[in-house]
Structures are given as structure tokens and as C-alpha cells.
Known about the structure:
It is a single chain. The protein is an all-beta fold. It contains no helices and 19 strands. The radius of gyration is 33 Å and the shape is rod-shaped.
Amino acid sequence: PNPSVFGQAVTFTATVTANAPGSGTPTGNVTFFDNGVSVGIGALSGGVATLSTTSLSVGTHPITATYTGDADFTASTSNQVNQVVDQANTTTALASNLNPSVFGQSVTFTATVSVVTPGSGTPTGNVTFFDNGVSIGTGALSGGVATLSTASLSVGTHPITATYTGDTNFTANTSNQIDQVVDQANTSTALASNPNPSVFGQAVTFTATVTA
């Protein structure tokens, strides 16, 4: 196709014909060029050679095809095709490893950035995590996955989203929303006295230690 997206397979087809009054079917090879640099060679079959590639970068590529000739036919160079390669679209899936959680507990959010077909490849760059629209941190993508761990969420429900900022080859996008519920943490209380036993009139101190 033209335009295509990053990572999509593009097939270039070169058809070599004999100019009148000549006739017949040329044989041999066709070399395909991207802005003058060879990107591959295709053998003619029935006067047609093809080259498929998924390696074109984002941008506009001036593609030409040069037939090298054979014993019966002269060489020739094709018209130029301006192959446009756009950024591939992405989607981001957000997940929490613990929902609900309790106050002070560490929660890890995982954002997985995937490429939408027909694009392909592995997105790079960063994902920013938001709590009700306010940034709570950024994670770098590794293998298309970014994580953020936090223990600072207050008690309540937090609408968490993740935004992939895109890179040269892939578009930005925002994930689904996760409503992260943070409950109050449970406590335990330990009581001790000093001294024990005591005598009448003696000061006694009771100490209560409350822990999460």
C-alpha cells in the first residue's frame, strides 16, 4: 500500500516491457533503490519483479527500479514512486497488581504498549502515569512495557491512566482507566505497663504502641 505505516510490509512491483517495434519478454534482474541506495533485487518472471520490505523508516521514500538488461533487451530505469511511511498506531493497556490496596501499601501499575496492525515493531520511549489527571510518575518502556510503583496513594478511589508519549515510529495514546481503591490500613495495639507490679501511690505508666 501507499501510504503505509511503520513495520507494515510494502511490496514494490516492477513490470519490464519491450518497446515497439521490439517484442518479447525480458529476463534478468531488477534492482530497487530508495533515494539511490539499493534496498534489494528481484528476479524477473514473466517480465515482472517484486520486492517486499518492512524496514522502511517513517517519512517519504523516493523509490525507483532499474532493470539491468539481458542479451536481448537494454537496461532501463522506472518512474519514481514516493512511498509515504506514517507512524504506526498504538494502544496502551493498564493494569494494577493489587486492587484494592490499603494505605501505605506499594502498588505497581503496568502499562503495556502494543502496535496496531498492520504496523509492527516494538515501541520505545516513556509512559506517564496520571491520578485524576495529575502526573504521579514516568516509566521508561522496555520491551513495550513500563511500570510505576507507589506507596503514596491516599485513602479513596483513584482514577489512574497511563499516556504513552510516542516516538519516531509510533503514535502517542492514552490507556484505559483503572479505579484504584485504597482502603484504610488495619492496625494493632500493644499495651505495656511500667512498673508491674507497683505499690500504692506509685506512679505507673501505661504505654500503647499502635502499628500498621
